[in-house]
Amino acid sequence: MKLLVVEDDPDLRRQLVTALENKNYTVEETADGEEALYLGQEYPYDLAIVDLGLPKLSGIEVIRQWRDDGKEFPIIILTARGDWQDKVEGLEAGADDYLVKPFHMEELQARLNALLRRAAGHSKPVLEFGPIKMDTTGRVVYRHNEPVKLTSYEYRTFEYLVLNAGKTISKSELTEHLYHQDFDRDSNVLEVFIRRLRQKLDPDQDLQPITTVRGLGYRFALTADSSSE
């Protein structure tokens, strides 16, 4: 999943980016509101973390313009202000949740996990698809209750397909949502990730969790157990 971090404090921004990248998220960053507005309008993100006190353009205005433009990705606002009006204004502008500085990275992680799950229609942190489970908190995949060893790229690819289960995802969409702008966009690289995932998740070739839709892309074809909805 690709996240956008908008924070003008360089130390906090670096802490956020490092912590999220360590959790296998793809993270892009900016320090000012004008660039944030542009990035959110031009590139696909799965979630944005936005400080309210930004230079050039306030976080409130960035969020308001994104929503006016039809951008629907979840947004968590950060604020050092204790005034409840700021939180209300941010939520009314279109944010989905908020954190007041200082905060624990674990709390931010829990909140963004919950927002990403809800955006995909799931309420519980562990998603089950027959013998395959994905723990969105620990960011671990299991097959028959045994952990599957995935690289960070493989996990990102699998997670995006799972959270869009039943939809056909093109190679270009996968690339845009999972990798940095300077990622090698040779489609053969993505095909390698998909092939490895299939081998690891379905070594007996009896599940076919990831199917190819010829000329269109890939689809996660398993149905979620009702207990994980």
UniProtKB/TrEMBL annotation:
Could you tell me which residues carry 4-aspartylphosphate?
Answer: D51
Q: Which GO terms describe its biological process?
A: phosphorelay signal transduction system; regulation of DNA-templated transcription
Q: Which residues bind DNA?
A: 124-222
**Sequence ranges assigned to domain Response regulatory in this UniProt record:** 2-116
Q: Which superkingdom?
A: Bacteria
Record keywords:
DNA-binding, Phosphoprotein, Transcription, Transcription regulation, Two-component regulatory system
Is Transcription tagged as a keyword? Answer: yes
Q: Which PROSITE patterns match?
A: OMPR_PHOB, RESPONSE_REGULATORY
Q: Pfam families, alphabetically? A: Response_reg, Trans_reg_C
Domain OmpR/PhoB-type, first and last residues per copy: 124-222
One example GO MF annotation: DNA binding
Stored InterPro entries: CheY-like_superfamily (IPR011006), OmpR/PhoB-type_DNA-bd (IPR001867), Sig_transdc_resp-reg_receiver (IPR001789), WalR-like (IPR039420), WH-like_DNA-bd_sf (IPR036388)
Note the SMART domains from the entry. REC, Trans_reg_C
What name does UniProt use for this protein?
Answer: Two-component system regulatory protein
- Protein species of origin: Neptuniibacter caesariensis
Ranked from the top, the taxonomy reads: Bacteria, Pseudomonadati, Pseudomonadota, Gammaproteobacteria, Oceanospirillales
